[in-house]
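for ur thesis appendix - Transporter. copy paste whatever u need, i formatted it the way the template wanted (i think)
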Amino acid sequence: MTVALTAAHWLFLFWVLVVIVVMGFRKDPLIPCILGLLSVGWLVKGGVVGAFTTVFNSLIVAGNEFWGIIVVISLIVALSRLLSETGADYLVMSPAARLMVNADVAFWVVGLAMMFASWFFWPSPATALVGAILFPVAVRAGLPAIGVAMAMNLFGHGIALSTDFVIQGAPTITAKAAGFANPAPVISASVPLIITMGLVTTVAAFVLIKRDMKANGAAHKLEREALMSNTETKRELDWVSWFLAVVTPVAFALDVVAMLTLNLRGGDATALLGATALVILAVGCLLKFGMEGLEKITDYLRDGFMFGIKIFAPVIVIGGFFFMGKGDLAKAIFELKTATGFLEDFGVALSQTVPLNKPFVALVTLGTGIIVGLDGSGFSPLPLVGSVAATFDKAIALDKATLAALGQIAGVWTGGGTIIPWGLIPVAAITGVNPIELARRNFVPVVLGFVATTIVAIILL
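the 3d part is after this line
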């Protein structure tokens, strides 16, 4: 198949490069995306009105693609606010706290607790949940504050957010951009990659922490004594706290069982999780606050949706721009049945002019995810890495899902909050460590993980 590259194709590619450069300088790329939509729309539609409708249509198309994920994340965050206020979060985490008998065990318990909490409640709420409850216990067990912060980062903002197996926000965005109907292929392809990435990074981090503890044992002892001098906050617990502490994990566990046994994916899985969170929120508000719960639930939902929109507002604009690269979505954005995806066309043209191989393709996808992730947003790179995977899929024979999963891991681990200081502030704040120092400590384990994961991806491609 021969593809004729037009002026609109080259203009789109120019703005893609501008977006990547802007993100590389740690700046938000929204204005370049808007200008790209405006100028490309003007060229394709042939007028000012067409240019402006292209900008607006792109937001609607992207919003429709992401709305289900925005809603479920907002509902789960709203529920986490209720759990925190009732003290149910403390009861959920207290069994894990009792397992931390020494520093070695504390590292893995904190990490695994953060991972599971992030899968179900997303990393931002999980940071507050795990940090507030398990951080003091882990420090008391002998794990330095920097060790707790590393465990929370690598397991939560790394493993959990880059896979997002339960809520499926990340794989849904990546899959849409890559041309899949649902996130299942990307999720399946990410399993061997995240096993590699997770094992290499966490084991490397654990070894480095143990070495640091031996070299700086006296300093860590003073740190622990200073932290333990602070009195812990007393929590008022009642039967509603216990009720929510039992019902919430059981309900979500049943959701996971239903997703596996009934093969629920994509929108069906999202609907199940969102409805579960909303029902528990409604029941919990009524039980805890009585008739005042009719008003209280509004506050929780408002907070939840403010969080969801805050996270996804820039992603919608970025996604709208890169969706011009995907055929079906480009048709909706330009309102033209003859429209083609710019990135898809470039992939075909590239295959006809440049000899490509799997190692090169994997390295480009990895580099794209890392560079775009430098803006500090874990989800900003996903529309691009998904589009890149679709582009290379047109150029050479490979497993598009594996390539998309590699780009997703690279983008989220970089931008989600493991190796850049401006993405580490929540964990750094709750553990009291310097975000620059935390980024420096995470750097070597994450780079080692990238190398190992890329090698595995090349083999699987």
